[in-house]
Structures are given as C-alpha cells and as structure tokens.
C-alpha cells in the first residue's frame, strides 16, 4: 500500500465527500470527516518522511500511464512540505468544527457541509500533489467551488455571506479562467500539459509573444487566487462572513495553496532563466508584495471586527510571501515557504480562537471582547500569542519567517525593501495592541453577555499556538525542509 | 400545460425515446462519439421535459430529491471505487488492465464502469440543478431561515419601540 500513498492522499478525502453527503444522524458526517482528515494528515507526514529518505521526487503514474502521456502525481521536497500544512490544518479545523458548525449551521445541512468541507480539502491537496498543469486547474475548481458553497452557508446566520460568496465566486472564476487561458496558450505552443515536459519544451519557443502572454495570464490568474494586492478585495468579506470553521480552514490554507501553485508554475515551468522573469516579473511581485504588506496592515489597524481585522492582516502576510518570491533567489523562496508554513499555523490558531468567540456571541468585534481577557483567559491568550507571532516577536514562528525574509532581501542588497518590511511588521503591533487594550485593559461592560470557554473550544486553537511557538524555538527542521523545497526550483546552496 | 392533449401525448412518446437515446450515447461511447457527460445531460433532459409538461410536483414525485442525492453520490463513488478496485488488484489507481481476464477486456470494463459513474452523476446533478432553480421559491431552507430571522427582527423591533416611547 505504501507506494499508493500519493493517490490515497487525495482520494481519501475525495471519496469521503459523497459518503458524508449521504450520512444522516447526529455527528456521523463530522466523525467521518475527522477520521478521513486524520488519515490524510498521517499520509502526508509519512509521505514527507518517504520523500526525505528517498532524496528525490516520488512519482505516481495514474492508470499506469507514464509521464508525458498520462497524469503523474509528484511528491518532491516542495509538495512534501506543503501537504502536511494543508492536511494538518484541515485535521485540527475539523476537530474544532463540531462545536462551531453546531452553533452556526442548520442541523439538516451538516451532511452537505462536511461533504463540501472534504471536497475543498481534497481539491487543495490535489493542487499540491499533481504534476499536470490541467489537473491543477481541475483541483483548483474542485476546491474553489466547494469553498464558495461553504462561504455561502454562513448566510443562515449572517446574510452578508451571500454577496461575499457571490463576489468570491465571480473573482475566483475569473482567476481560474485566466489560468486556463494561459495554459491553453502553452498547450498550443508545446503540445503537452505535464509540468516537467512543459518546462523542457518551453525552451524552443521561449521568446515568442504567445509565451509571454501565457505567463501574464497564468500569473495574473494566480495573483487573483492568492489575493495578492490589489486583487484581494474578495478575500476580506469571504473570510469575515463565512461560518467560523470555514474562515479558519480557508484563512490558513486556501491562499497558501495558490502561492504554492504560483511558485510551481513560475519557477518549475518557466524557470528563473526565462527572459524577463527575474527582473520584470520579480520586480512586479516585489512591488505588489510590499504594497500589500502596508495596505493590509493599515486596513487591519482601522478594522474593528476581529475576523475582518485578521483577514486584512492575511493580505499583508501574503504580501510577505510575495516579497520572498519576488526576491528571485533560493533564500527568498525558502523564506516564502517558511512563511507559508508559519502563517498557516498562526492564522489557524487565530481564526479558531476567534471562531469560538463568534460562535457564542454571534460576532467577534472589539466591543465583544472588551474585558474578555479575564473572562476567557485561555482563548484570549491564544489570540495574543497568534498576534505576537504575526508581528514577528522572537520565540514565535513569525520571527523565523521575518528573519529569513530580511536575510533574502539583504542578500540581494535590497536595503530599502528590508527596511520597509521591518517597518510594516512593526506596524502590526498597532492592531495587536488594540486587541490587548480591549481585552485586558478595559473593564467588561455590565450588560455584555457572559463568555465561557471549555477545552473543546480552546484545545484546537492551542494545538496551533503550541506549534507556532514550537517551530519558533526549534526552527532548524523547518528551515532545512524549506531550503530543500526552494532547491527544487532554484539550484542554490545555503 | 398539463391540459393540452397534443403536448401531453407528444411528451409521453418523447420522454422514453430521449432516455433510450441517452443510454445509446452512454454505452456506444466505447465505439463512437458519446460518453458519460453527453449521455447524462440527455438523460436529465427527459426529467426536465417531464417536469415542464406535468408540473414540478409530479416531476419530484417521479424522482424524489433523496434518491437524486443518492444517485449523485453513487456516481462519484462508482468512479472512485473502480480506481480503488484496480489498486486492490495490485496495479496503480485507475489502471484498468487488471479488471478483466486480458488487459484489453480490463480496459473495456474499466472505462464502461467509470463512464457509467460519470453519466449517473451528471444526470442527477442536472436534475438537481433544474429542481433547485425551478423550486427555489417553495423549497429553500436558507430562504426560510432568513425569513424567520426577518420576522424575529421585526418582532424584536416592535417590542422595543413602546419601551423607548415610555422612556421619553
């Protein structure tokens, strides 16, 4: 069975979805989802180990058809690093989902909710695993379509989920269409869809106008999907009005998978030597990244709704990942992978903790958490640590991210950019301080509803918090894995 | 439209013919143009025609929503489990060679099963889409719940309003 793990990674949640849709009865669908995401997490960890021991890419041929003809699934250092992030977050979010979904979603819709939940996870895992460019599009659509449905399910409680889901649907579809238009051009030029084959054959048609057009379409489509400034407007309402469990799952994983696909396409297919890629495209991504970091942070400072606040901060954090990609170096890519990993943990922790509050109080705003630091100390501390990690305080995972990001920029002598990155990170202190002030320095208003907490609510969030601190202190394995992932795309030494 | 004898008689002749043609497209897909997607849509068209002529309620009666959900899921599972079967028989996922006595027979069985899964899911999803949009105003949990919210909000506002007046 061991050689089948790359495909089992995807079909376990994928085939779980139709089963979950058929299950009736209390918590059965949730139990199935928990079991299957747990199995998927286990598989991804084993795959990570297998890949590390093998030292080369594990290749699985679907239907026994070899590479350029058939679809192959490729587990290399990069996908082996991203798979545990997605499946691990999915597992922890599923643990937390039971309470959140019970509070926010009509009992008759639970089966369909978990079906869509498993589908979106399967789609994300598929995008990471596959070595076929069109297969990426198929999985992109699987994960996005079910994500639109999940966001829209927030409408039972918050009607603004409907326009949010609709905007997300329109923009997400535009993004996916741009990607597939670019892909169509590449297919027309080379006659292949296999990523490795594509990168070899592109050398023959490198400086034609059609290839540049293809690059532009693919990059733009993925910028939209990963919510890179200024294509991020769908993200904030979608995360803010979705059911809390969905906000947590998506904030921690959805955009990260698109970042991974962008890296895979830009570096894995076009390659760093592609004419104009290192300077023109790199400069564009750097500029948008740094602009996004500032715009996201400033918008987060002005926000009073906690879900929106951290959604805005996601824009900033995606900006940092873009800066890592835009540096166009091995260290930069490694920094992007490190931040992708760490940010998933931090945002997972934050949105799970906020979700626990929102599920009780109906919403989570600065007003809701006034004086809550004494009423629900454990949950609020999780939010505090998550916030500190976002700033990049030492001993948290966020510090490691920023350290390698700034190192990558200094390597290329981008002194000013390094300074700007530092300033925008420091600005994040403002919104975290706003939360500290509201939660601990203010008295709880007399008429405010009493918030409670129990292990069921805070344990999932704290799992992430502990991981955030753990990877902040013992960062060596992560850094090593991230450099290995970067070396898949850019041959370079540490 | 139920009352027009011409439409009723023509529909009664057409519906089975459409279904039969769908099955032809489905299973002849091995040798000529056709396959699960096309067949599924044609098959669903028969249900859509039935509901349009004889009314939504009778359309639902012929093919209940629960059964339809089962068909949606069964199609996907049939596809996926065909792959799992080939995996259990010792080959890669979706490698049909091992499903039959010879690789050729295996490929034949495999593609037939997989395409049938596709056809089943496509047909039932098309039917589900039609009934969801057509029956949107009568059978929608989300709309019901939102209306209930509105009523609650209005009731709440009505209760609060007199209080305010008494204060001033």
Could you list some keywords that capture this structure?
heterodimer, A: 494 residues, mainly alpha, two-stranded antiparallel ribbon, 19 helices, 76% helix, globular, B: 168 residues, flat, disordered C terminus, NADH dehydrogenase (ubiquinone) activity (chain A), NADH_UbQ_OxRdtase (chain A)
Can you put this structure into words, describing what you see?
The complex is a heterodimer of chains A (494) and B (168). Chain A has a domain of 196 residues. Chain A contains 19 helices and two strands. In chain A, strands 1-2 form a two-stranded antiparallel sheet. Chain A is mainly α and 494 residues long. Chain B has 168 residues and is an all-alpha fold. Chain B is flat and about 75 Å long. At the A-B interface, α1 of A face α4 and α6 of B. Chain B: InterPro entries: CPA3_antiporter_subunitB (IPR050622), MnhB (IPR007182). Chain B: Its main location: membrane. Chain B: Keywords: Cell membrane, Membrane, Transmembrane, Transmembrane helix.
């Amino acid at each position: 069975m061991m050689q089948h793990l790359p495909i089992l990674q995807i079909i376990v949640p994928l085939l779980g979805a139709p089963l979950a849709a058929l299950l009736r009865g209390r918590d059965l669908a949730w139990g199935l989802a928990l079991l299957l995401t747990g199995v998927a997490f286990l598989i991804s960890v084993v795959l990570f180990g297998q890949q590390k021991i093998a030292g080369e890419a594990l290749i699985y041929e679907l239907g026994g058809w070899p590479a350029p003809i058939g679809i192959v699934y490729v587990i290399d250092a990069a996908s082996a690093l991203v798979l545990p992030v997605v499946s691990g977050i999915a597992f922890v979010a599923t643990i937390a989902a039971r309470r959140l979904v019970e509070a926010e979603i009509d009992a008759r819709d639970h089966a369909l909710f978990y079906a869509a939940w498993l589908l979106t996870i399967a789609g994300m895992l598929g995008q990471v695993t596959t070595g076929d460019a069109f297969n990426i599009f198929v999985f992109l659509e699987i994960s996005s379509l079910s994500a639109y449905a999940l966001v829209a399910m927030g409408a039972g409680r918050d009607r603004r989920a409907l326009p949010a889901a609709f905007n997300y649907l329109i923009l997400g579809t535009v993004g996916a269409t741009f990607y597939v238009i670019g892909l169509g051009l590449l297919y027309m030029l080379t006659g292949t869809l296999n990523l490795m084959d594509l990168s070899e054959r592109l050398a023959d048609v490198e400086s034609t106008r059609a290839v540049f057009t293809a690059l532009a379409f693919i990059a733009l489509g993925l910028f939209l999907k990963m919510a890179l400034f200024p294509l991020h407007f769908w993200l904030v309402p979608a995360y803010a009005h979705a059911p809390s469990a969905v906000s947590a799952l998506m904030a921690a994983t959805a955009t990260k998978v698109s970042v991974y696909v962008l890296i895979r396409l830009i570096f894995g297919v076009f390659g760093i030597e592609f004419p104009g890629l290192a300077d023109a495209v790199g400069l564009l991504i750097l500029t948008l990244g740094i602009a996004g970091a500032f715009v996201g942070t400033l918008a987060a400072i002005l926000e009073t709704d906690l879900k929106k606040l951290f959604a805005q901060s996601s824009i900033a954090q995606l900006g940092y990942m873009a800066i890592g990609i835009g540096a166009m170096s091995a260290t930069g890519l490694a920094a992007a992978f490190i931040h992708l990993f760490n940010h998933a943990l931090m945002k997972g922790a934050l949105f799970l903790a906020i979700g626990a509050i929102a599920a009780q109080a109906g919403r989570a705003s600065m007003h809701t958490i006034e004086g809550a630091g004494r009423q629900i100390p454990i949950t609020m501390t999780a939010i505090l640590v998550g916030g500190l990690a976002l700033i990049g305080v030492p001993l948290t995972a966020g510090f490691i991210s920023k350290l390698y990001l700034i190192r990558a920029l200094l390597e290329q002598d981008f002194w000013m950019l390094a300074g700007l990155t530092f300033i925008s990170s420091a600005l994040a202190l403002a919104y975290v301080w706003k939360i500290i002030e509201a939660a601990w320095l203010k008295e709880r208003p007399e008429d405010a509803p009493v918030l409670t907490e129990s292990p069921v609510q805070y344990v999932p969030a704290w799992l992430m918090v502990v991981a955030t601190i753990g990877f902040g202190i013992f960062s060596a394995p992560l850094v090593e894995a991230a450099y290995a992932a970067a070396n898949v795309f850019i041959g370079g030494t540490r | 439209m139920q009352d027009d004898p011409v439409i009723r008689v023509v529909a009664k002749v057409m519906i089975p013919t459409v279904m039969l043609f769908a099955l032809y497209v489905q299973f002849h897909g091995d040798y000529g143009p056709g396959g699960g997607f096309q067949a599924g849509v044609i098959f669903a068209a028969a249900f859509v025609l039935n509901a349009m002529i004889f009314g939504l309620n009778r359309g639902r009666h012929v093919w209940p929503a629960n059964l339809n959900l089962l068909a949606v899921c069964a199609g996907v599972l049939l596809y996926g489990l065909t792959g799992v079967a080939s995996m259990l028989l010792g080959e890669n996922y979706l490698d049909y060679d091992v499903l039959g006595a010879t690789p050729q027979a295996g490929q034949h069985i495999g593609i037939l099963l997989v395409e049938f899964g596709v056809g089943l899911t496509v047909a039932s999803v098309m039917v589900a889409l039609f009934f969801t949009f057509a029956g949107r105003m009568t059978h929608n949990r989300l709309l019901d719940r939102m209306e209930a919210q509105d009523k609650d909000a209005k009731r709440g506002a009505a209760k609060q309003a007199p209080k305010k007046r008494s204060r001033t």
